[in-house]
Amino acid sequence: MTDGFMGPPWQMDLRLDARAAYQALPGHVREIVLAARAELVTAKDPYFRGIETDACLPDGVQVIPVRSSEPKGARLLLFDDEQGWLKYAFVPRIADPQIIVEELFWLGAEPPTTPQAEP
Description:
Helices cover 21% and strands 25% of the residues. A 5-stranded mixed sheet has the order 1-5-4-3-2. The protein starts with 10 loop residues before the first strand and ends in a 13-residue tail after the last strand. By secondary structure, it is an alpha+beta fold. It is built from 2 helices and 5 strands.
C-alpha cells in the first residue's frame, strides 16, 4: 500500500445485475464495452471533468454526468453511438479507489447474419 492517493489503473466492479446484463450482450457489443472500460479504468480523472477531457475515448463513446448539480456524482458512459450506457460511480477512497458500475443497458440490434432475400 502507498501513503498517498492511488492513481490509475482503477479497480472496476459491476453489480450483479450489471454483470448479468454484460454477459447477455452480443459479442461485438461486449468488445465495445471492454474498449470503453479500458479507457475508463486508465483515465486520470474517471469523472471526465473539463473541456475535451473525453477526447481520448473511442469513437461513439462519451461520458456525461447523470445530474449536472452533482459534480462528483454518477456518470453515464454512452457507447455504440448512444445505443447503450454504463452508469457508474467513482469511489475515491485512499486505500482502494474504484469504479462501481451500477447499471448496464444496450438498446441496439444485432447485425443481420444472413443476406436479405430479394423481393
